[in-house]
Amino acid sequence: MALHTCYGLHYEDFDGVDAGWEWDPGLLSVRAKLERHFLEALHADVADGVDVETELGELLIVPDEDSGVAAFLRDHGKPWQVREYFVHRSILHHQEADPYAWLIPRLRGRAKAALVAVEFDEFGGGRGDRIHQRLYANLLEGAGLDPSFLYYLDVVPAPMLAIVNMMSLFCLHRGLRGAGVGHFAAVEITSSPASRRLVETLERLRADPACIAFYREHVEADAVHEQIMRREVIGDLLGREPDARASIVFGIRATNLLEDRFADHVLSCWRDGHTSLLGPETPGARDQNSMARLRVPNEFAAVHLRSC
């Protein structure tokens, strides 16, 4: 949470906090210590490698139909579990694509142009109402949840915060740009199949159209982005900087590691019959078998107030 707060200064204002803290030398020194600890932990748990092509090829293999959070939700998911998943992912999707903008000045030539093309889609193709962050806010509202920026930060446990921190870490440091590109590619390659399963989940539960629209957008867009990231961004980057191979592989493997840990946490909690969020159970959530016309804006209010 400390590292997430330090990074947060680069994205949105904190109420009552002077914007000058963003570049305060003392705070940056503290952040650097947190980053070293985080990066060392990632390196300790991620095996080294340089075979980018094999790593990308493995990402293209569609996982077992019965594995992962998206598959669980498609086959067994209840409305309360879907909404919990939305709450977890809100910490990421509220700043979706923002960290990757830091990669743009760190690339050159075709790699830069291609990454900008992907970002253009992420930011709605120039339309404010189509920015993916806005689409996710619509999803939260459609699910009866609060769409405010990072509203649920205090109830989301460490596994999701680690993923979001990794995004900022890789993209804010020029020396980690290869890892940032590897991470971005891993996200785009794996997004479309998972999003397709979530569309099936939400259609089964008769969810609000805004919920379905977000994931349907990612089924279509990320299938295209996967090709651009593999062929244009990574291909050109490696042509210019062959030594970036190890960093790209590290970014892919670190992403897989943290996403697997997040999935393990969520699924173990659900299979044990309790919430995957921090705080008490949500009253009445388990009694619902449909998300149709669901409006529960205060559903997580007790948890949120407890944290504050």
Key phrases:
globular; 63% helix; 308 residues; mainly alpha; disordered C terminus; single chain
Question: How would you describe the overall organization of this protein?
Answer:
This protein has 308 residues and is an all-alpha fold. The chain has helices at 2-8, 25-45, 52-59, 68-76, 79-93, 109-122, 132-142, 158-172, 177-204, 209-240, 245-271, 301-307. It is globular and about 55 Å long.
Could you list the spans in which at least 5 consecutive residues all have pLDDT below 50? 294-299, 301-308
Helix content: 55-70%
Strand content: under 5%
Rg over C-alpha atoms, rounded to the nearest angstrom: 19 Å
Number of continuous helical runs: 12
| Broad shape | globular
Oligomer: single chain
Structural class: mainly alpha
Q: Please report the total strand number as a whole number.
A: 0
Order of helices and strands: HHHHHHHHHHHH
Average pLDDT score:
90
Determine the N-to-C terminus distance: 14 Å
Biggest sheet details: none
Summarize the structure.
The protein is mainly α and 308 residues long. It contains 12 helices and no strands.
What is the element layout, followed by pairings?
Elements: H1 2-8, H2 25-45, H3 52-59, H4 68-76, H5 79-93, H6 109-122, H7 132-142, H8 158-172, H9 177-204, H10 209-240, H11 245-271, H12 301-307
Helix pairs in contact: 1-2, 4-9, 5-7, 5-8, 6-10, 7-10, 8-9, 8-11, 9-10, 9-11
